[in-house]
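Study this pair:
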Amino acid sequence: MGPSLADRLIENQARIDQLQLEQARLAFEFEQSGQWERGGFNSVIDWLRFNCHITSTVAADLVNVGAHLPRMTETVKAMDSGDIGYAHVKVMARTADAVGPAFDEGQLLGLARESSPGKFHYKCLHYRHSVDAHRFDEDQAQLHERRGLRLSTAEDGCLLISGGLDPVDGAAVRTALEALAKPCGGDDDRTREQRLADSLTEICTNRTRQRVEMQVTASIESLLALVGAPGAEAEFSLPISSKTAQRWACDSSVSRILLQDSVVIDVGRAERTCKGPRRRALEARDKHCKWIGCERPASWCDDHHIVHWLHGGGGELDNQILLCRRHHRMFHEGGWQLIKTDQGRLMAMPPAVNFGFLPIHGEVAAKPPEGRGRG
């Protein structure tokens, strides 16, 4: 009796993995040789696309794996022994490329052995955050800059929607849609796609302001972006940067959960960071987003702590200001800072100080006033 179907699948995949690894070695060697230039191609990626009939992503991964093989000798041995597959090696190479000298093959190989390739990719993102939270923040900010939504009308009048959102905004949108897209009883014969379409329409036509409820898990170390801390976690999202978690923690419900040996031993009551009379007083004082020239209404704004409560800032109104979502993001992920002068005036300082200052209240100041305080 010959090998079972399961055995044949495993054996074939092992052979395919070995061929892909050899292809990665050859692809990198081919790039270094410069032979691809003879045909007038712009890059080795283009040569591989046209001559090996693969996508640019597959081609780039081959070259990247080949480039990092000298740093992944133990990883190759683990693949040869069947502990991991080429998909793990590909994720390992991407991580090595992202973190540079901080790459720790031994630590990542342990994660690879215990995880599927998809889960390993997720854990590698946490690893990237732990070794360089600042770079991770920048990468997520770049994804946000590539966001886009396209609306067009078909010949029959139907609205066609296409586009892409960064992982953070995507998680927020998906959380809102999924909550309304659940089947409504046993006689709900709508497809999942129809339920999602209906949930989008329901949100857009709902006249009341409905805040999206998302559960985000982050340690204090992650919120403070300490070295070695993983990213925050939320359903429907890849790991979230510490800057984004800090922004959400500005105006949200926060609860304390204590764990010991991965077992929950205490759960505190969820408390909003800005609620009730304090929020009403803040809305009455600011009335709208206080960024100069922005008049987004108070009901659309977040409560921003000038000195974040993680860094000792209090809940008094003098330490809070209303900012719309876009401008709130600028002060966290965007690296802007609020500066309070000795006269109590708030100034917005961009990441590059040579661009000058913008006032939150009043006229534009050409240069920073003397004796400014730093928030």
Observations:
- The chain has four domains: 5-131, 148-205, 216-272, 276-374.
